[in-house]
Design goal:
Elements: E1 17-21, H1 29-40, E2 46-50, E3 61-65, H2 68-78, E4 82-83, E5 86-87, E6 89-92, H3 98-104, H4 107-143, H5 148-156, E7 180-184, H6 192-199, E8 205-210, E9 218-222, H7 225-235, E10 239-241, E11 244-245, E12 247-250
Antiparallel strand pairs: 1-3, 1-6, 2-3, 4-5, 7-9, 7-12, 8-9, 10-11
């Protein structure tokens, strides 16, 4: 087993949320959360406990206490404690948890926090996707030589080239936030009024624009990104009948 260096103290400023890492990744999430709750509840009231199974979040958890003093006691006494044969590494979380903000702030402030966090997450995903696309393009440039004339002819015909060097495009699911949403997979009978009834409920709604001669798609514009972020989060994947599930992404800039 690789030796793990136990920090002498927290690196982040005090917070009611404790960040836990170096957890055993093979343990089922429900079992892990139960064990963590049993350990940490000895040091104060635990109001939330977040642990996820996706690749980036494996081996980590966030334990939210109802006060900073409880978090401080937990870090001081549990630091290095072995759980499932692995020593836990503890620190204060870098940001306050949703549960803490929901308890201490207003509903409007909490919603603003969620929108801001979601926007930051989507910008990060867009940046990562763009960087991955650049790497694919660089690799293709280095390993494949395609006559420029052939590429130009393919583009001129309005077709997507199969050559990666022709310009990698960021997948639309990872586009950065935009105040304009691109709506797809709409039932043929959906019109401006139908879409306004769905998207008009969100802050800063401006208008719905249909595409002449094209069914099943539309654009929805808001005054600022905040409204578009909320609308995308709440409506993407919504069932509209006729077996249609609405797809909502940001418009490509």
């Amino acid at each position: 087993m690789v030796a793990v260096k136990i920090p002498s103290g927290p690196a982040n400023p005090p917070n009611a949320t404790v960040y836990v890492k170096n957890l055993e990744e093979r343990i089922k999430i429900d079992q892990l959360k139960e064990a963590l709750n049993e350990i940490f509840s000895e040091y104060g009231k635990v109001i939330d406990l977040v642990a996820k199974s996706n690749l980036k979040a494996k081996g980590q958890a966030f334990v939210v206490f109802d006060d900073v003093a409880s978090a401080a006691r937990a870090i001081g006494e549990i630091q290095g404690f072995e759980l499932f044969d692995k020593p836990m590494i503890l620190d204060y979380a870098k940001t306050r948890s949703d549960a803490t903000l929901a308890r201490e702030g207003t509903k409007e402030g909490f919603e603003h926090h969620k929108r801001k966090r979601l926007a930051e997450k989507e910008r990060r995903q867009a940046s990562e996707a763009a960087e991955a696309s650049k790497k694919i393009k660089r690799s293709a440039d280095a390993n494949a030589e395609v006559p420029a004339r052939a590429i130009k002819a393919t583009r001129g015909a309005g077709l997507k080239s199969s050559n990666p060097a022709a310009g990698a495009v960021v997948p639309e699911e990872y586009l950065p936030p935009n105040k304009i949403l691109f709506i797809q997979n709409l039932p043929d009978h959906y019109d401006v009024e139908s879409l306004t009834s769905v998207f008009g409920a969100f802050e800063g709604f401006r208008e719905v624009r249909l595409v002449p001669g094209r069914k099943g798609i539309a654009f929805v514009e808001y005054e600022a990104e905040a409204g578009a972020i909320s609308a995308k989060e709440r409506t993407s994947g919504m069932s509209l009948g006729d077996g249609k599930v609405m797809k909502v992404v940001y418009q490509r800039k």
